[in-house]
Design a protein that fits this description.
Elements: H1 2-23, E1 26-36, E2 46-50, E3 60-62, E4 67-76, E5 79-80, E6 85-91, E7 98-102, E8 104-105, E9 110-116, H2 122-125, E10 131-138, E11 146-155, H3 191-214, H4 221-228, H5 230-252, H6 256-286
Parallel strand pairs: 3-11
Antiparallel strand pairs: 1-2, 1-4, 4-5, 4-9, 6-7, 6-10, 8-9, 10-11
């Protein structure tokens, strides 16, 4: 008797728990589905009431410029409440492809979702038959979720508009080899242009000497300058000629990384020797030598 009583009590408790779980479930109330066109006037829109687990007998016609709207009040155990998830699931029965659209649900359970034809993916727009629309309402806890077929959608297309074409999906795989085309090496200017400017530079030296002589340049101090400061003057004029040589090498064969170190070293020598040479010239000017 004691074992029989305990077994009966356990079965009764299990039945009560299962009954309580079954009694608590999600659903909806005050639900309507409507289709409003752009040119439809007052009262010209399609509108039908939705009932739980009772799909509409006729498909809902959705044109290219129509807007499908669903309004409902989500309820848990007959009490209006905001669920964690509420979706409108649209599925192609022939291919089993589907897509979902979330309902905007407030704290009082009132939810809404709007849909136009262009929101549907191409795979569903090219369906050969009506699309199946289902409502899904669920949340955390022990309450049973709601998932049931609500109505069918029949798509109506504009004959003047191009039909939607399904693009081939992107697949990861071997791609054609990429051949890089690098920029060609810079070409030297024509030789005739180079010769003209070279001749102009060479002619400038005698013209500069003639201009110095005509302006009264005194070459008698050349030996005195070399005697007073031979190293600074020699290095100064030598560095100037060396810098010209660096420019020539850069023009003919060197690159920038070869030119910059040589130019920096020669420039340092020019600066140090030039300052000492100019100091010697200043001393001769202060002594009255012109």
């Amino acid at each position: 008797m004691r074992v029989s009583y305990q077994l009966s009590h356990s079965l009764l408790t299990l039945w009560a728990a299962s009954y309580a779980c079954a009694a608590s479930s999600w659903g909806f109330d005050d639900a309507t589905v409507s289709v409003q066109g752009k040119k439809a006037g007052v009262g010209g829109a399609f509108k039908e009431k939705l009932a739980p687990n009772k799909p509409l007998p006729n498909p809902v016609l959705l044109g290219p410029s129509d807007t499908l709207k669903i309004l409902l009040t989500a309820k848990e155990d007959r009490k209006a409440k905001q669920p964690h998830q509420a979706f409108l699931l649209i599925k192609d029965p022939a291919t089993s492809l589907d897509t979902s659209y979330a309902l905007t649900v407030k704290d009082n359970g009132k939810g809404k979702v709007e849909l136009v034809q262009k929101d549907l993916p191409t795979q569903l727009l090219t369906s050969s038959g009506p699309l199946s629309a289902s409502l899904i309402i669920a949340s955390f806890g022990s309450s049973q979720p709601y998932h049931s077929h609500a109505f069918d959608i029949s798509l109506k297309f504009d004959p003047s508009s191009p039909t939607a074409s399904q693009e081939k999906p992107l697949r990861y795989g071997k791609l054609p080899e990429i051949h890089h085309t690098f920029k060609s090496e810079p070409q030297s200017p024509p030789k005739i242009i180079t010769l003209i400017f070279t001749a102009a530079v060479i002619i400038a030296f005698p013209l500069l000497a003639i201009a110095w002589l005509s302006l009264g340049a005194n070459l008698n101090h050349f030996s005195k300058a070399l005697g007073s400061s031979p190293i600074s003057h020699t290095l100064f004029f030598g560095s100037i000629l060396a810098m010209e040589g660096v420019f020539f090498m850069y023009y003919t064969s060197w690159n920038l990384f070869q030119t910059l170190p040589a130019a920096a070293a020669i420039g340092l020598v020019t600066f140090l020797s030039g300052s000492r040479a100019l100091r010697e010239v200043q001393e001769r000017r202060l002594s009255g030598l012109r």
